Amino acid sequence: MSQLTRRRALGATATVLTGLVLTGFARTAGGSSEPRTADPKHNAGHAGHTGHAGHEGPQPFSETFRGRRIEGAPSHGEGHHGGYAVQIDGEELHVMQNADSTWVSVINHYETFATPRAVARAAVIELQGSELVPLA
Question: Do 90 and 81 form a contact (C-beta atoms < 8 A)?
Answer without folding.
Answer: no
